[in-house]
Amino acid sequence: MLDAIDHALIARLQEDGRLGVAELGQAVGLSPSAANERVRKLMAKGAIRAVVALADPAALGLGITGFVTVTLVHGADEAVFVAAIQADPSVQECHHVTGAANYLLKVRLADVAGLEALLKRLKATGVVARTETMLALSTPKETTALPVGAVP
After folding, report:
1. In what residue span(s) does the HTH asnC-type domain sit (predicted)?
2. Average pLDDT, the chain
3. DSSP E strands, 22-80
4. What is this structure's pTM?
């Protein structure tokens, strides 16, 4: 179970993963060595999975953000689909969902031609019956930070 200090450490690292242990400790009222030990334990427990750099998709030429619902062929081997999307770098997220479709993908692509190529690759797996794509016109909110502490 995580305590308030763990939550505070995670919240600060979500804001800026480059913070040093001295700054982290000061922010939560711990010595640098105690903050370092707490972060190490949080990583060992899996509460902090990784500390990463967040790249700007536009700077990388990925101007298209799409959301694709995927309905599989009835009785299809889902492992075939899962392997295909795990191997595809344009698929940023994949969620097994409730509703009419089986999966919801978040994809990042350079252009519509890239989207068309992705859809062809998905259908070539032989397990995809139908896809429906929505393109993001704008993105008023996008965050990787999880709500820490009291969830609203």
Report:
1. 2-63
2. 96
3. 64-72
4. 0.88
Is it the case that residue 124 has pLDDT exceeding 70?
Answer: yes
What sign has the CA pseudo-torsion 100, 105, 110, 113? negative
Q: Which residue, 45, 38, 40, is CA-closest to 6?
A: 38
In the block, which residue shows the tokens 């536009």? 58
The CATH architecture to which 4-45 belongs is Orthogonal Bundle (1.10)
Which residues pair with residue 131 across a beta bridge?
A: 70
Q: What pLDDT band is residue 147 in, cutting at 50, 70 and 90?
A: very high
What span, in angstroms and rounded, lies between the C-alpha atoms of 55 and 135?
20
Let me know the angle formed at the C-alpha of 74 by 73 and 80, rounded to the nearest 5 degrees. Answer: 55
Place of tokens 């899962």: 82
CA geometry: angle 15, 16, 19, nearest 5 deg? 135
Q: What residues does each domain of the chain span?
A: 4-45, 58-135
